[in-house]
Amino acid sequence: MITDEKQYRLTKEEKAFYEENGYILAKGVFTREEADFFCREAHDLTRRLAEASDTWSRIEGWGSAAKVTSKPRELLHCHNVQFHSAAFSRLIVDPRFTDRAADIIGRTSS
C-alpha cells in the first residue's frame, strides 16, 4: 500500500549537519553493488548520449579539474536523466532517497 509514512529518516545529527553545512553525505543508503550499478549506468548513459548527439551540454577545459589531472577534460551535462535511463527513473523515486530528501525539504501542501 502506498502511504505518506516514511521508513527512512534523517537523524537529528544529520539534520543539524545539513543546517550547518548545506549538504549531507548519507553513507549506506544504497549497497555497494547498487552504487557500482549506478556508476556504470551513469558512464553508459554518458557514452550513449555522446554517441547519439553533439547537442547536449558540453564544457571543455573545466579548469578546476586541472588540480586532479592534466589529461583533457570535459564536463558533460544532461537534464532529465530519468527519461534516458530506467535505472535513474527508479532511483529518483526510491524511498531510501526520497524519504531523506523530504526530511530536508519539509512537507508541502497543494
Structure in words:
The chain is mainly α and 110 residues long. The chain has four helices and two strands. The chain has one domain. 44% of the residues lie in helices and 7% in strands. Strands 1-2 form a two-stranded antiparallel ribbon.
Low-pLDDT residue spans: none
Can you write the helix and strand succession as a string? HHEEHH
- What share of residues are in beta strands? 5-15%
Mean pLDDT over all positions: 84
Number of helices: 4
Give me the Rg, rounded.
17 Å
Question: How is the main sheet built?
Answer: 2 strands, antiparallel
Task: Kindly state the percentage of residues in helix.
Answer: 40-55%
Large-scale geometry? globular
Strand order in the largest sheet: 1-2
Overall number of strands: 2
End-to-end span in angstroms? 22 Å
Look at the helices and sheets and give the structural class. Answer: mainly alpha
Number of separate domains: 1
How is the topology of this model organized?
Layout: H1 12-21, H2 32-52, E1 57-60, E2 74-77, H3 86-91, H4 95-105
Antiparallel strand pairs: 1-2
Summary tags:
single chain, 44% helix, globular, mainly alpha, 110 residues
Question: Quick summary of this structure?
Answer:
The chain is mainly alpha-helical.
